[in-house]
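Appendix B, record 7
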Amino acid sequence: MNKRRTHSPEFKARVAMEAISRRKTLQEIAADHSIHPIQVSQWKKQLLEGSSELFTRGKKTQSNEEGQAKEAELFQQIGKLQMQLEWLKKNLSCSDAHERRKLVDPNHGQLTINRQCQLLGLARSTHYYKPVAVRDSPLAIMARIDVIYLEDPSSGSPRIVHYLAREGIPISRDRVRNLMRCMGLRAIYQKPRTTIPGSPSERFPCLVDLDKVTSIDQVWATDITYIPMRKGFLYLVAIMDLFSRNVLSWKLSNSLDTQFCMNALEMALASSRGPEIFHSDQGCQFTSADYVAKLQAEDIKISWSGRKRCYDNILVKRLWRTLKYEEVYLRAYSDDWEAESSLARFLRRFGHVRHHSSLGGKTHHEVYSCIENRSSRPGLTMSGAKTVQ
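Structure tokens (predicted):
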């Protein structure tokens, strides 16, 4: 089995700088260096968080007594940890559960079976488990599922249930799902995930009622969507005024971090205008401590979508549909710069030029700025450029 790869700090820094430059998607960078995209995202985050330390000066605040206490505590653990680590390094050479079961030594004089299983990352019940042979009938069904999956790899458990029912094989969806999991089969479809729940220390209720939005700057809303590229994805965040539906700011990123959402918020607030209520879902970007602190510092009420409140952010979702069907799906962006300039062109026209019947024939920008129709057209702006000018 191949040994685990290790990377030098110089290599990690070079890859992180490529991700920060945004000339390529995470998937392209990962493919160039034969690494996983998650590693690229983690190294990028580490570089951004650690860069501030280069410009800070200070002295350690810990006293000598605290250092000596920690040193004594560490020395007390050296004997125990050194023995355990030596045993672990000697025996842990694979990650397969079947192989790790073989590494457990019931006759070890100092380590119990429970402790050995903990060091190996193995449940103790797995150590005592004795596999049961699969019967012939499930094997026949699994063989038929394999044939169906090879013919149609986009089939999931619901579709395969219907295929098997037509052939006279009554079977439940749960059983098909379990058999596919045992076979390592998953339906092939596009499944980026932009809303990852956070764990905030304080939660805020939903304050948005679209029927009661009667003026500009009453409610701003934000959301994240993905932009498909030839290789991988980019992520787009936008902030919209719900009354005029004007896009106040937007930002592109090749990773789902909090910083590009913070940049979009700062761009929207830079016009010296702010909302009474700021609405978002409960993704970890919008529930982060920095994001919440920024809104509270501006005396803005925070509103989060709760369960069964899918229509609270429907206007931003409607913007995503228009953007993708009229712009993104008609093109195949090759890099970040092409996507950025093309999206800037579309959003400028969508907000400043295109008239909307629901707004009395005015543009979003005209309604938000409370001005009459005019023929002048603002110049092209880039990534997150403020459309309120």
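Remarks on this record: DSSP finds 15 helices and five strands in the chain. The chain has four domains: 1-46, 77-131, 136-183, 210-369.
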